[in-house]
Design goal:
about 75% helix, about 625 residues, mainly alpha
Length: about 625
């Protein structure tokens, strides 16, 4: 990096810190202000903040690797989550906001009755706040290493004496956090990575712990704009250097042959026998997961919205920006890199092939982007990292503060009500603690790979109960415990029974069947939630679906709830079809195959427009979800 690149990066750091510090006074008033921005966030801001959080620096690298390894078709593994995002918007977003809770773990004591409520709330707070959150944070922190090794050569910039002492200490300890991206040894690479991580964490911690969610969202908007601008510039340069979309596709046909290039550019499975596993994974993966109803930072953004309408808009904006806007840019970049950094069939047999193809994204930034524009893209990558880390610090610490410290320690154990100033102080300290745990995870990432695979299966095991608790009154505290227990026991067994990656569909399908069946059986045979608790929850949240006894108890018609659920699912599907038709249509117009006409892409876009009236009013209208 040269001085112009650094000026762009310094301006970004100064802007983000300023936005966070400006929100410090409001964030210090209460936990509602610190974690939910006073519950007055506008929908579009919350939606962009969600998208910024998922705009992690490792995601464009993942796009590049997937396209090279399995073609554009493999991206459906990421795009299918658009269904979950839209279902959250049309169904769950307003429910989260109406529940008037601070964390999703707190819902346990609002929705259920019985002695196990506090234990379940504490278990979920620790699991999501520390285990899952810290694991994700660790992976995001490791994504910094590949960026750091290539662009932040601290050994050339820092004074020789302190840097040399640090490098010597790392060599003696035998620490190796290098990724092979840099053209120098692992000691220098590790030292540079640690310096980069330390500076990044100080930077993010400064504004995120000061301004709370309000500061995080303000910084996210700024950082998302930078990340998109850098990505658009990268895509435009690749297209310009290729001579345009047509010559780019022609170059791929020349390099890889018509058959292989066609497979890489296809939106449908081209490998014989891949259709059934594809359908199983696509049909289950998006629905049965640990964020199936928005649980996590997505629910936090919905709870922070000013109105039900804002909550719906937030989730819908997030889905469209995430699946359409972001993906189109990265699709162009991923396909362009195939031409600028070609590979042979022999290269594809290398076990490290996927990782090497992911690094082509960073090589493209270094090789193809001119000074100044390259600084914008490097800053965009740092912004993507920062916008993800800040959310995980804020969201993860909310469990420790609200559910562990306030509810369990103060109210449950010490029998006292903590003051607002005390809770905000604990919130800031908890953010630092989550940060330290994330660093420990990043430093020991190799030892948790198997645990991370188990956590994905665990998500498939608890996804059903997370959704059913909103639409079926019989779900109780025992049901959630049963789902978690089944997932914990079945996960390792399924990984042992189906160890191969190509059997993932069997692992996922079996977990969903066993866990969902067990959850339903436990709900039917165990004592139901007390009528008073259900009635209070029903009146405040206004859920839809199968709430017959509760609806009759409060003098309402249960049939209207089932109709409302059907209407909501229909609108979700209509919006999803619009989204995917637009994605495919615009993608094929931007990257046209020589043998295809513009007719199919145009019909796809027209079909998406025709479906829009079926869902648009439900998102943007002022009416409540239920009458």
């Amino acid at each position: 990096m040269v001085h112009w690149d650094f000026l762009i990066l310094i301006a970004f750091v100064a802007g983000s810190v300023t936005l966070g510090l400006r929100a410090r006074r409001k964030a210090s008033r209460s936990l509602d202000e610190y974690y939910l921005a006073g519950r007055e966030v506008r929908g579009w801001k919350a939606g962009i903040s969600m998208a910024a959080t998922q705009f992690a620096a490792d995601t464009p690298l993942l796009f590049s690797g997937l396209i090279a390894v399995a073609g554009v078709f493999a991206l459906w593994r990421l795009w299918v989550y658009g269904l979950a995002f839209l279902l959250m918007g049309f169904l769950f977003a307003a429910f989260w906001r109406r529940a008037r809770i601070l964390t999703d773990a707190e819902l346990v004591e609002v929705r259920y009755s019985g002695r196990g409520r506090l234990a379940l709330r504490l278990t979920k707070a620790v699991y999501f706040g520390l285990v899952i959150n810290s694991a994700v944070l660790g992976f995001v922190l490791l994504a910094t290493f590949q960026v750091s090794e290539l662009f932040f050569t601290w050994h050339l910039w820092l004074p020789e004496t302190p840097y040399g002492a640090l490098a010597a200490a790392i060599a003696r300890l035998g620490i190796d956090l290098s990724t092979g991206t840099a053209p120098y040894g692992h000691v220098l690479a590790t030292t540079n990575n640690l310096v980069s991580i330390a500076l990044l964490l100080v930077f993010v911690g400064l504004y995120s712990t000061s301004g709370g969610l309000r500061g995080v969202i303000a910084s996210d908007l700024f950082q998302f704009g930078l990340a998109m601008a850098g990505s658009i510039a990268f895509a435009a340069i690749l297209l310009w250097e290729s001579g345009g979309p047509g010559p780019l596709i022609g170059r791929l046909l020349e390099l890889y042959g018509e058959e292989q290039a066609g497979r890489m550019l296809s939106f449908t499975p081209t490998v014989e026998g891949a259709l059934m596993p594809f359908l199983v994974i696509m049909g289950l993966q998006w629905l049965f997961q640990m964020n199936s109803d928005g649980t996590g930072y997505l629910a936090q953004r919905c709870m922070a919205c000013a109105t039900d309408r804002d909550a719906r808009i937030a989730a819908t904006v997030f889905a469209w920006v995430q699946i359409l806007g972001r993906s189109l840019i990265w699709l162009v970049i991923g396909v362009g890199l195939l031409a600028f950094y070609p590979f042979s069939p022999v290269d594809a047999l290398d076990p490290a092939f996927a990782a090497s193809r992911e690094r082509t994204f960073l090589l493209g930034v270094a090789d193809q982007m001119p000074v100044g524009i390259r600084g914008l893209m490097v800053t965009a990558l740092v912004a993507a990292l920062a916008s993800t880390i800040d959310t995980h610090l804020n969201w993860g610490s909310s469990y420790l503060t609200n559910d562990v410290y306030k509810r369990f320690v103060c109210q449950g154990w010490l029998k006292r009500e903590p003051a607002s100033a005390e809770l905000v102080l604990v919130a800031r300290a908890a953010s630092v603690f989550v940060l330290l745990v994330g660093c420990l995870v990043a430093a020991n990432l190799d030892s948790i790979q198997q645990g991370w695979r188990i956590s994905l299966l665990f998500g498939a095991g608890i996804g059903a109960v997370l959704m059913l608790r909103w639409v079926w009154e019989r779900i109780n505290v025992q049901s959630e415990f049963a789902a978690m227990a089944i997932a914990i026991v079945a996960g390792p067994i399924l990984l042992w029974a189906f160890p191969e990656d190509d059997m993932e569909w069997a692992r996922l399908g079996t977990m969903v069947l066993v866990s969902t069946g067990g959850t339903v059986i436990v709900a039917l045979v165990s004592r139901p939630t007390e009528r008073e608790v259900l009635s209070a929850f029903y009146r405040s949240v206004r859920p839809v679906g199968f709430w017959g006894r509760t609806a009759r108890a409060v003098g309402e018609d249960p049939r209207s709830l089932r109709r409302a659920l059907g209407t909501t699912v229909f609108a979700t599907v209509a919006c999803a079809v619009s989204l995917f038709l637009t994605l495919v249509g615009v993608s094929k117009l931007i990257l046209p195959h020589p043998d295809e006409t513009w007719l199919l892409p145009l019909l796809s876009i027209l079909g998406a427009v025709a479906l829009t009236p079926l869902w648009w009013r439900r998102v943007a209208g002022q009416a409540a979800d239920v009458s």
